[in-house]
Amino acid sequence: MEIVPLGDSALIVRMRERFDDAPEQTLDTVLRAFQQLQNAAIPGVIELAPAYTSVTAFFDPISVAKGAETPDKVFDWLAARIRAAVAAGADRGRHRTATQRRVRLVEIPVCYDREFALDIDDVARRAAIPPSEVIRLHSTAEYRVACIGFVPGFPFLAGLPKELATPRRDVPRKQIPPGSVGIGGAQTGIYPLRSPGGWNLIGRTPLRLFDPQKNPPALLRAGERVRFRKISRDEFESLK
Amino acid sequence: MSVIVERAGFLTSVQDLGRTGFREFGVSSGGALDPFGLRVANLLVGNDEGAAGLEITLGGLQLRFEDERVVAWCGGGDFDVRIGSRVLPAGHAGSVSAGEKLKIGAPKAGCRSWLSISGGIYVEPVLGSRSTDLRAGFGGFEGRSLRDGDVLPLGMWPGSPTPATGISSWTAPHDWVSPAKPKPILRFIRGVDWNRFDASTLQRLTSEAFALSPDSDRMGVRLEGPELKRADASDMISEAVAPGTIQVPPSGKPILLLGDCQTIGGYPKMAHVITVDLGVAAQLRAGDHVRFSEVSLADAHRLLLEREREFERFRVGINLQRS
């Protein structure tokens, strides 16, 4: 574990150096640390967010300084508290591995019809397989949310079958409709909001990935498991 | 109990001190790009520090008040602000009577100002904040920047013991209320990817000036100048970024992130502008030149704590003025 400053009001707790060699184990480790830090409720910590190999803590240096005595010690004081909280979690985590693995599996219906799959031919060509095989592979794999970000509610999903990995488009689209399912490099993801983006679009879900009127506002959170279920155009309309 | 937006200006939005607690879902903190400036303005009108106000970019705003209020603003370099025909300088509180108009003209320098109105802008909080998330389109007033004709709800206000007409003689410190500086030097601490750049590139960051590209917004300012290409080509894993982060995409043109920045990024984080200088950064506009100078993390914290102590003293002083 390494703790590094992200400016003067945040710090990054890096749990592992790599992600791709062991995504499952890395996510379990990161989420355990995230949970442990949430439970620890360290004074001055405002919010925590996990991403791939790390957990980031945003803090109020003014509140932290009250515990730390001098400004020289704000970072060290907080880092020590964080180290202790994560270490305590790691000890207990050994006995909890089984429960940790029981994360929620979310099924996401996706219509892979041509009108939503603008780039499926590019993905198919690159993999030297027919588009129907792209759909089969994409909708039978199981994924895990490595991180939510880019725009609110956007899930970066690890676990894309290797054949489907496709570099981002050279020229990003200016506007991608909400619900669009795309492939960017070795990851797949879903655009929750109308936004620009460079991922290769292969389908669309009728589900709403982000709703600020709900709490939690996002359909998915880091660590959760995801499967895509192929649906027809009619079903897409009825689920909307 | 509302204020009418007769002219919305170039880009005006409802902002408070930002949205926290939803970062794990990719929700940015947002809020006033100079949260300290908004806190000072709120203090001047007797609001809670976290009350929602307006962030005004490059002026052009005209408001008409339905009832009597106290207003104050911070930011920019010399915005031309008038209540009726009376000039309201930065950092002073001014009374507005029912039916009166407040106009915020273009600034002589700087980019943004924050206006507080007693009672605060009383839109419904979304995810715990009244800030407008312009990119995601929620919060604030209908999730968007203001338009001509909008009617903004104002909070309850018990009335003020300050004179019903006129402009306060007391004011907040100049640096707080007028943060725009010509050719500012922004202080930074090293980023986690500092060592991915070679010595001559790192030297360019501190020895040369950068110009602000027009392609800048509340998410971040893009800087033109010497290229800052990283020396190593190893893959990077996306992790958190924060307001103040200076990230360097493959183009070698650094981006200084501001309050609406996304929550994660995959570019090297070369440096981070310190919190006390974010208010200066929020004043940069296209073509402005900026320089950078390094400080230690402990200095960044010391400067922040000193400012906070001064703010506390000011709060005590202003409450004495009122009583």
Note down, in words, how this protein is organized.
The complex is a heterodimer of chains A (240) and B (323). Chain A is an alpha+beta fold and 240 residues long. Chain A folds into 2 domains: 2-100, 2-Layer Sandwich (Gyrase A, domain 2); 105-239, Cyclophilin. Chain A is 32% helix and 28% strand. Chain A has helices spanning 23-40, 61-68, 74-93, 97-101, 120-127, 131-140, 233-239, and strands at residues 2-5, 10-14, 45-51, 54-59, 105-111, 142-148, 155-158, 173-176, 180-184, 187-190, 195-197, 200-204, 225-231. Chain A has a 7-stranded mixed beta sheet. A 4-stranded antiparallel beta sheet of chain A has the order 1-2-4-3. In chain A, a hairpin with a 4-residue loop joins strand 1 and strand 2 (10-14). In chain A, helix 1 crosses helix 3 and helix 2 (61-68) packs across helix 3 (74-93). Chain A is elongated. Chain A starts with a strand and ends with a helix. The mean pLDDT of chain A is 94. Helix content of chain B is 17%, strand content 30%. Chain B is of the alpha+beta class and 323 residues long. Chain B is globular. In chain B, the strands form 3 sheets. In chain B, strands 1, 2, 3, 4, 5, 6, 7, 8 and 9 form a 9-stranded antiparallel beta sheet that branches. A 7-stranded mixed barrel of chain B has the order 10-17-14-15-12-11-18. Chain B has helices at residues 35-45, 174-177, 199-207, 278-281, 297-322, and strands spanning 2-7, 11-15, 53-57, 61-65, 69-83, 86-87, 94-96, 101-117, 151-153, 185-190, 210-212, 220-224, 239-240, 245-247, 255-257, 264-265, 269-273, 289-294. Chain B has 2 domains: 2-177, no CATH class; 185-303, Cyclophilin-like (Cyclophilin, Beta Barrel).
